[in-house]
Automatic annotation (TrEMBL):
Residue stretches spanning the membrane: none
Pfam families: Tim17
Lineage of the organism: Eukaryota, Metazoa, Chordata, Craniata, Vertebrata
Organism: Loxia leucoptera
Gene: Pxmp4
Protein's name according to its UniProt entry: PXMP4 protein
GO terms for cellular component: peroxisomal membrane
């Protein structure tokens, strides 16, 4: 038993010594990136899938749990594979050119995005839309920072909020099919289901009455 413990400690020391080797840093960063992508993807998707599934999806409890597990696995796998691909390509480019330049990040991410997130499915669609909104904010701030557009004299956020809500509700009312399915479900719950009730049970307690009254 003691021999087994000694072997484990020796193995742990060897692993820790390997992790301190600078020559392996790029490869080890790729592996840890894969790990962090998998963990982060699961942390982000699991609670979201749990809420959305039990709020809007029908089916048995087992089917709902299966749906949550599948969505969590898909998000976790895709993010892990993307980080692995991105960091691997970044390291390869840096090694080939002898230094890291900004274009390396763009090219590596483009290739990773094409390979990992190129399939048009609900999980990837949500991730891309999440990123797109942040990109637009980021590019706007960068344009002001670089002097390409003047610094607004007043906070433009109220106008942005008005335009975003005005546009999305117009789309929902008259072109619903253009919106992403989970957004359709959320807005149907908020703006259409609130128009229908039969008695106090589905006015205050439940959203929809389940009996055949």
């Amino acid at each position: 038993m003691a021999g087994g413990g000694d072997s484990f400690r020796a193995l742990l020391r060897a692993a820790n010594a390997l992790l301190q080797q600078r020559r392996y840093h790029a490869a080890l960063a790729v592996i840890k990136g894969f790990r962090n992508g998998a963990v982060y993807g699961a942390k982000i998707r699991a609670p979201h899938a749990l809420v959305m599934t039990f709020l809007f999806k029908s089916g048995s409890f087992r089917e709902k749990l299966k749906s949550i597990a599948q969505a969590t696995y898909a998000h976790s796998r895709n993010l892990a594979c993307f980080v692995f691909t991105y960091k691997g390509l970044l390291a390869a480019q840096s090694r080939l050119q002898g230094k890291k330049i900004p274009f390396h990040s763009f090219l590596a991410a483009c290739i990773g995005g094409w390979l990992v997130f190129g399939d048009n499915n609900p999980i990837n669609s949500q991730i891309i839309m999440y990123l797109l909104s942040r990109i637009l904010f980021g590019l706007s701030r960068l344009a002001v920072e670089k002097g390409y557009i003047p610094q607004p004299k007043q906070d433009p956020f109220p106008l942005l909020a008005a335009l975003v809500w005005g546009t999305v509700l117009w789309l929902f009312e008259y072109h619903k099919e253009t919106l992403q399915p989970s957004l359709q479900s959320s807005m149907t719950y908020l703006y259409e289901d609130s128009e229908v009730w039969h008695d106090v049970s589905d006015f205050l307690v439940y959203n929809k009455r389940t009996d055949s009254k």
